[in-house]
Amino acid sequence: MNYRKLFPILGFVAIFFTACKAPADQTAGITADPEPYEYALVLHGGAGNMNFQSVPEPYQDMFKHALDSALQLGLDVLKEGGMSIDAVEVVIRCMEDNPLFNAGKGAVFTSEGKNELDASIMTGQDLNAGAVAGVTDIRHPISAARAVMEQSEHVMMAGPGASVFAEQVGLEIVDPSYFYTKKRFESFQKAVVREKHGTVGCVALDKAGNLCAGTSTGGMTNKKYGRIGDSPIIGAGTYANNATCGVSATGHGEYFIRWTVAHQISVLMQYKGYDVERAASEVVELTLVEEGGDGGVICLDKFGRPAMVTNTSGMFRAYGNSEGERFVAIFK
Ligand code: ASP
Are the C-beta atoms of 173 and 81 separated by less than 8 Å? Predict the structure, then answer.
């Protein structure tokens, strides 16, 4: 037998098997592009360690109803061909007006018994962003964040300066006592939860394929005066990039800032090819758990697929899309 003749054949066989094996290894965790939804929207109303005892049934129904109505408002905008930024703003304004949530009207108190609110918004087509921090008299901080993005040359404005700007662009300024729903809050707190969660956030994908993410909060209960959390920090509490995903976070803000959680999820998708669920789980259920940072995220990828991941026992959340799929949930 002429063994020399066998070499090219063996070489071919070796190359064939290597070629068959390589893509499988390289694509671990990478899924083929799915058919995108025409539009989709996901929202949250905060995360925390809650259970059926700490959130009794009548309150669960109140929350579910509030989440579902906010979802509907956003889906209506998207169905009509509206922009994702309009859907996000409408959803968050509605939640800011609802004292159930720790944002706008229902904002928690600082250690001094004041309300200092943070919000941010980002659009995925141009990586444009706006934020306000530590504001005390703007009824809808999310609209102020949008105004900073669209009507100023800045990304973030804070405190009294942000209020002057908001008034100049025609936003509603209220007396700080507007947020002082203490009586209501205390009775609510006794009845429902020991520590109030309820930061709100929303991510939307519109028919033009543009992602937008926004977050609004009163911050952490009992926070020190002047403390700013992750919610108004682009890359920590909020991020959107049409190439990857939109993210809104809720939880112990200091950890979300230090681990740039929202941006980290986008980066895992961009550079490692992870799908949105895997990227969100890696950051929230591995990194944050190792470090001791409680909280969760809601995300939408560029196809409109959601990831709603929390390392706490609950996260108020809802999702809907153009195919009529709809989902409202509280516990894990
Ligand atoms: N992340 C918010 C903050 O640290 C609070 C929260 O989401 O519950 O200000």
Answer: no
